[in-house]
Amino acid sequence: MADKRPLSSPSEDPSSPPAAKRPRKKVACQRCHAQKIKCSGERPCAKCAQAGFGNDCQYQARDRKITVSQSYIDQLLAENERLRDRPPSPARDAPPEIEHTSRRDHTDPDQSRRNPIIGDQAWFQRYDPIAPPIYVGEAACTAFATRLRRFLTGNTVAAHIPRTEYMSEAALSELSTVDVPWPSFTHATLLLKVAFHQAGRVYHMMCRKSTFEALKDTYETRNFDAPVNKCKFFTLFALGEVYSIRSNSSTGQVPGVNYYAKSLALIQILPERPTITHIENLLLLSLFSYSLNRRHHAFLLIGSAMRHALVIGMNHNIGASQVVDPVEREHRVRIWWTIYIFDRMWGSKMGIPNSILDEDVHLDMPTTISPKELHDEQFPDTDYATASVNLARIAGEVITKTYSRKKYKETFLQRVQQLLKSLKAWVETLPEHLRLNSEESGLINPKYIVSLHLSFNQIVILTTRPMLLRVLTQMSNHVPDRQGSKDGVSQAALTLAEACIHAAKHSHSLIIHQWTSGSLPIFGYFNVQYLFSSAMVLLMSSLIATESATSDMEAFETAAQILRCMSGDGNLTAAEFSKNLEEVKRSFEIYKARRNPDHSSGDASGAGVVDSALSLTAENGDISTAFGSGMNASMRNAPGGFTTEMAFLEPTMQNFLAQSDFDLGLLNPSEMSGDASSALYFWNTPQWTE
Fold this sequence. Notes:
Layout: H1 30-35, H2 46-51, H3 70-85, E1 124-125, E2 134-135, H4 141-153, H5 169-176, H6 185-200, H7 208-221, H8 227-244, H9 257-265, H10 276-289, H11 295-311, H12 326-348, H13 372-376, H14 382-402, H15 412-428, H16 447-477, H17 491-517, H18 526-544, H19 549-568, H20 572-595, H21 609-612, H22 633-637, H23 646-649, H24 651-658, H25 661-665
Antiparallel strand pairs: 1-2
Helix pairs in contact: 4-20, 5-9, 6-7, 6-8, 8-9, 8-10, 10-11, 10-12, 11-12, 12-14, 14-15, 14-16, 15-16, 16-17, 16-18, 17-18, 18-19, 18-20, 19-20
């Protein structure tokens, strides 16, 4: 009988002695492999950690060949046959927090991979009968407001509110012909100080000391006609005015718009050889465009800045031999990252894809140059810049992973879990001096730090609010069976809904504090958007969380009142969002009347809200997993008690983040999909976007 030998590959010689085991080669991560650079093989590797891509350091999964016995394969086949022949049962051998999946749910494997408010077709809005329709993504807050109104009224074809509250091109063109004199040197210096204090600490768009020196030189030499410098300083004057003037009652227009219109007229001819100063001007103009509620224009300007930067290779590191001055070299790095932040953040407000992929960025993160005194007089805080870049990267991933129509292998909940893990890591690694001070400390939180946390909360809301609306729809459509029992919503869905509400309440409390302290920018865009976004979530919370329904509606009314006040002061964005919020409120009254026909719909005080609230429990029926049970009641009902990281400390959220991909893959696909009766899906009707 022949000797039994283990199977070997054709290249092996069975008669040769076994070779000594060679050390295993290190596998390069995907980023190092794409760039063809040496990888340390760690997680994260040294190169990714140095470049600030530690969270994105991923290794290609290796499909290893293993040897198993024939009896083991036969056992798996027999088990498969047994499970296939087993009759369907409402109970399954899955953990209690995993939803039960019916056989019908498997007919469409893509159901669990979709965002519950994303359909097969895009939304379009036709503003002008002779102009092409304008596209708007589902991530836009006004698009979500229309979704919410359709749910509340039960009208699946309720019209979207078009955006008309912005300064028109004709008005800007007319202003550009008006002569705008340079302010006095003292006034110009004051406006620059305001612009740097309000915007320069959040975004690096120019070197502080160098800009003030250039301003002084301009006035001393009377060189007021250089187009590039005039464009830069006039846009800074515009920002200084819009941040310092509290009302437009004297002029009837947004402060600083005269300077802005003149600056726009100076950049009509694009340079063949882009300069850093030209890119700075595009950044400044893009930021001010939001004060006029021209967010499409702002995105177009930042797209131009992105392409100018790519032309001169700003997405790559440049050697010290080519740019000797360390200030100039660091300025180049930070300008690129500001473009990156604007691209991700601006796009996330409209649901527009990222203009550049992360793997095409080969640039180091911002650093602190030596000596520190030189750094501090030119650049804002390095830790703040790094945190902003990392947060913008997550914002871009939210649009890519939750609001695109790309076909993913992972389920929607798996992708949401990945995003929330990134957000949790971001807040956990935030340096201490960038964290918010508690109210008990009595310390004032700087506006630029508050702005960072408001951006974080909005990204959490953007990630989780589709599930909040889905949960609300499921509970509203729920009908008990003959035995009076009812199917609950999965704990995973409740956890995401609760995280969304937590972020909204935290944002609301921060903005209300700014309003009451007089530090809220009257003509700003971003805080107005955050207030509008949080107000919609608070209204939805009033329908879900019975014990906080009254306080949630009071917070909603407070937000609506602030938007009305800011609209009256001339804030164009507040005028748009206030109109949307008023329509949401009218829809809410219709919803209350539908659920409680005997309740008077004219009561604006919020009475009867508790009667309209839905009883919400987890699918397993355990009261310990009911909505909001993981959060201390006093924290839920007192906005001042919230912190940025609190939502990630809840036991239900920790359980959700700890679940394996396999467990999340078992979640009921029907909960993630729409059907013909759902108010979220109406793709056979003409669409719009905003």
